[in-house]
Amino acid sequence: MHDNRSTDRLFSDQGQRNPLSVLKEIYGYPAFRGKQGAVIDTVTAGGDAVVLFPTGAGKSLCYQIPALCRPGLGVVVSPLKEWGIGYIKGKSIY
Predict the structure, then answer these.
(1) Sorting pLDDT into bands at 50, 70 and 90, what band is 87?
(2) pLDDT averaged over every residue in the chain
(3) How far are the Cα atoms of 34, 47, 59, 87, 92 from residue 56, in angstroms, in the given order?
(4) What is the per-residue pLDDT for 83?
(5) Which structural domains are found in the chain, ordered by start?
């Protein structure tokens, strides 16, 4: 659950923020898991990353946090293959 103060911080343009601070303040987690920190540091510094983590390993934070830390717009390319296949099969569209 987010309060209005969290929402206000999302839209501030005060420059680049610290990824760990964003993790704690916005998401409420005390630390990154596994390789999240390394991926987030790379992307926040302007690098590119291809991330292959299992379900539940925190892939979404690897693009959400850099987007919140850096000024400007963040673009994420994600095929969501498994979600799309499951959705189509569930709707009997195939």
Answers:
(1) low
(2) 80
(3) 12, 24, 8, 19, 27
(4) 63
(5) 4-90 (3.40.50.300)
Both tokens assigned to 67 = 């987007």
SS (H, E, C) 51-81: CCCCCCCCHHHHHHHHHHHCCCCCCCCCCCH
Global pTM? 0.66
Cα torsion 7, 10, 15, 17: sign: positive
Of 34, 2, 45, 41, the C-alpha closest to 20 is: 41
Residue written as token pair 């309060």: 3
Rounded to 5°, angle at Cα 89 from 83 and 92: 140
pLDDT in tens, 13-29: 556 789 999 999 999 99
